[in-house]
Design brief:
The complex is a heterodimer of chains A (113) and B (110). Helices cover 0% and strands 53% of the residues of chain A. Chain A has 113 residues and is mostly beta strands. In chain B, the strands form 2 sheets. In chain B, strands 2, 4, 5, 9, 10 and 11 form a 6-stranded mixed sheet that branches. Chain B starts with a strand and ends with a strand. The chains are: A mainly beta (113), B mainly beta (110). Chains A and B meet through strand 5 and strand 9 of A and strand 4, strand 5 and strand 9 of B.
């Protein structure tokens, strides 16, 4: 089983719908992240959380919200999806103080029509 | 504006050739990481470089961090089809938040 699990892996939805992407991890890491990947733009940070009571905006947080339900669970919500939110979304974890290595899930591909 | 610029963005070469991928910035980073991503999977860390001028080798892959800690390169010797993938550099600027380059999509043809 993967250490970082994302659900769903693929989702097609319509403009205006509310979508939640879920992430769970078995690595025991305190830090969790949500990234968005678009062709030619690399990975961009949406939100991150350094512990259960900590939530921080990344560089592209507009239109997104998150919830850290437990150390192992971090979900990303799109309250009202729009087509330019079509992308590949990755959850990641890291364990300080270490080298800062990120451990990624397999990704959730979201298509907004 | 991309904080980290990777070049080239696409590279297709024959098996056995050598190649270099560059990761450049005007900013100083405390460390720089290289990841490789294969289709349907998340990125996986290859190496972290921390000291200016540092060189690390991973089999046929050689990673170098610039003296000023603003740039890095990845050199692959005698490329093989298994090296095919998306290579991403990522710079750390404190608080362990990483900034990613746009990626280099590498294809090695048999």
């Amino acid at each position: 089983d993967a250490d970082v699990t994302q659900t769903p892996r693929n989702r097609i939805t319509k403009t205006g719908k509310r979508i939640m992407l879920e992430c769970s991890q078995t690595k025991g890491h305190d830090r969790m992240y949500w990234y968005r990947q678009d062709p030619g733009l690399g990975l961009r940070l949406i939100y991150y959380s350094f512990d259960v009571k900590d939530i921080n905006k990344g560089e592209i947080s507009d239109g997104y919200s998150v919830s850290r339900q437990a150390q192992a669970k971090f979900s990303l919500s799109l309250e009202s999806a729009i087509p330019n939110q079509t992308a590949l979304y990755f959850c990641a974890t890291s364990d300080p103080p270490g080298t800062g290595e990120l451990f990624f899930g397999e990704g959730s591909r979201l298509t907004v029509l | 504006t991309q904080l980290l610029e990777q070049s080239p963005q696409f590279l297709s070469i024959q098996e056995g050739e050598n190649l270099t991928v560059y990761c450049n910035s005007s900013s100083v980073f405390s460390s720089l990481q290289w990841y490789r991503q294969e289709p349907g999977e998340g990125p996986v860390l290859l190496v972290t470089v921390v000291t200016g001028g540092e060189v690390k080798k991973l089999k046929r892959l050689t990673f170098q961090f610039g003296d000023a800690r603003k740039d890095s390169s990845l050199h692959i010797t005698a490329a093989q089809p298994g090296d095919t993938g998306l290579y991403l550099c990522a710079g750390a600027k404190g608080a362990q938040k990483l900034v990613f380059g746009q990626g280099t999509r590498l294809t090695i043809n048999p």
